[in-house]
Amino acid sequence: MFSGIVAAVGRIAHLQALEKGLRLTVEAPGLDLSDVAPGDSIAHGGVCLTVIEKAGAAYKVDVSRETLDCTVGLDAPGEVNLEKALRLADRLGGHLVTGHVDGVGEVLKFERIGESHELLVRAPKPLAKYIARKGSITVDGVSLTVNRVAGTDFSINLIPHTVTVTTLKRLQAGSRVNLEIDLVARYIERMMTAEN
What we know:
globular, six-stranded antiparallel barrel, 45% strand, single chain, Elongation Factor Tu (Ef-tu), domain 3, mainly beta, 2 domains
């Protein structure tokens, strides 16, 4: 489990092709790796991946073909939001995040409004029913609060700090982003639709 509070921006520095996926080398000089060991989970742009090897300020993770097919941002070198898995005693600054991406959204607008930025995203139609005004959503691993919803489109206000310390600053119209809906919404929907 994660909180959606990005701890550092790392860099996918190298990709090695596997039979069914990729092995990524991630450079993370800003992330405290002193307590990270093989088998530990780290979220990469909202995608939970398992560390298989660590060396200094870098580590390796494997990404399956299935994960690559339903996410964005893990198939090329570049910056990535990083968060280590929560411990039970950690502060929950965002909301409960599983690191299991529900779909890929498209950025319709990312523009500065005063000191903040407005982010307008179009979600895949099957996810729209889970997105609520003042509800939580994870965008590229960042826990955010929805301001407005209209059909499949939702708007978020990003404070300067969030823009500065995450990869969201690189977004523009047409960018694709990993989305994870609120865990609570998923369970409520299951309870309401499950047959007895």
